[in-house]
Design goal:
- The protein has a single domain, classed as TIM Barrel, CATH 3.20.20.
- It starts with a strand and ends in a 5-residue tail after the last helix.
- The protein has an 8-stranded parallel barrel with strand order 1-2-3-4-7-8-9-12, surrounded by 4 helices. It has a two-stranded antiparallel ribbon with strand order 5-6.
- Helix content is 46%, strand content 14%.
- The longest helix has 22 residues.
- The radius of gyration is 20 Å and the shape is globular.
- Helix 7 crosses helix 8.
- The protein has 343 residues and is an alpha/beta fold.
Length: 343
């Protein structure tokens, strides 16, 4: 079982005073010699996650916001870590595959084979139009484009010159004279729930962030929904003759009981107890709190075992980005699950 976390950026983070300060000051200059608080937070939390045995970081991407650019942040953090992998988000509607092939090879060689790609097909029309891209909302062509995108990236990692002719991309004799660090190329992570998107994952993905019913009211409901989704993907994998590995994103928080853990989770992300903060929590992480990883350490470990038994191999935990929480997850989940001594 592998364990990961999100890099703290505004659109995937709750309960962080540093992120709030970064957003509030994003349009202002910084004092001389002072880094943005979002970067110092990422540095402190993610370097500690590397030390504490986490396996992978997801650097999510959002351009229309105060979020730091994923490739720049991921590269900076990768230079400070020694074993954890960096999964960098990329949207085919905003990048050329040839450029991403080289960027990924560069980072992979800089961080000794520790990078991966998170392929996203997108939904924010305003963002992509503003930054020169296209989302193709409601159009299965975006999955055709995404599949071609990955085939080009992987093709350029394998051979030079490389040529490709598809619906959206035409590449002729492109030469990438910088290969990834290892014989096994960077892995492709992605998520989708549409039938065409799931077919794309079965054809070109290495990992799938398993979709589930966000309206599920209980942990049992979540587990049943996950099992249906996994069974469906396995059938698609069989048709394609490929294997895709499964990942999931539960919210984690510890307490002396489930009730106390949930109360603690609410306090951590709603420090002033306002209705606005509560609505923000429920919108961002509400479904993930019903995945069974909010409870006592023993209950959380039992739920992790249940995920593992159903075939999930990576848990990308959601939690407020605090060094203390990183250490707690390492002590209560990662070390016991691996039979190792807590750090």
């Amino acid at each position: 079982m592998q364990f990961g976390l999100y890099a703290p950026v505004p659109h995937v983070t709750v309960g962080s005073t540093e992120i709030a300060a970064s957003v509030a000051g994003a349009l202002e200059t910084l004092p001389l010699g002072v880094a943005d608080p979002a970067f110092t937070l990422s540095r402190d939390v993610l370097v500690e996650a590397d030390r504490c045995g986490f396996d992978i970081i997801l650097f999510a991407e959002r351009h229309l916001g105060a979020d730091m650019e994923a490739w720049v942040l991921g590269s900076a953090i990768s230079a400070l870590t020694t074993r954890i992998r960096s999964m960098i988000a990329v949207h085919p509607g905003l990048w050329h595959p040839q450029i991403i092939a080289k960027m990924a090879s560069t980072l992979d060689r800089m961080c000794t084979g520790r990078m991966a790609l998170n392929l996203i097909t997108g939904w924010n029309v305003e963002e992509h139009t503003m930054f020169g891209g296209e989302t193709m909302i409601g159009n299965d062509d975006r999955y055709v484009r995404a599949e071609e995108f990955i085939r080009i990236v992987q093709g350029m990692w394998r051979e030079a010159p490389f040529s490709f002719e598809g619906v959206f991309y035409k590449v002729k004799d492109a030469q990438l004279l910088l290969r990834p660090a290892t014989a096994a190329p960077p892995e492709i992570f992605t998520a989708s729930r549409s039938p065409r998107g799931l077919d794309m994952i079965a054809r070109v993905g290495d990992w799938w962030f398993v979709d589930y019913d966000k309206d599920a009211e209980t942990t049992d409901d979540v587990m049943e929904s996950l099992q249906r989704a996994i069974d469906d993907m396995r059938a698609r994998m069989t048709r394609e003759g490929r294997t895709v590995r499964f990942a999931f994103n539960p919210y984690v928080c510890f307490g002396a009981s489930r009730e106390e853990a949930m109360e603690r989770a609410l306090r951590m992300v709603t420090p002033d107890g306002s209705d606005a903060d509560m609505r923000k929590l429920l919108r961002r992480v509400g479904p993930a709190t019903r995945a069974g990883c909010v409870g006592t350490p023993e209950q959380v470990r039992a739920q992790v075992n249940a995920f593992r038994d159903m075939g999930i191999e990576l848990l990308l935990f959601k939690f407020p980005p605090l060094v203390e929480e990183v250490r707690a997850i390492s002590r209560e989940v990662i070390a016991p699950m691996r039979g190792s001594k807590p750090i």
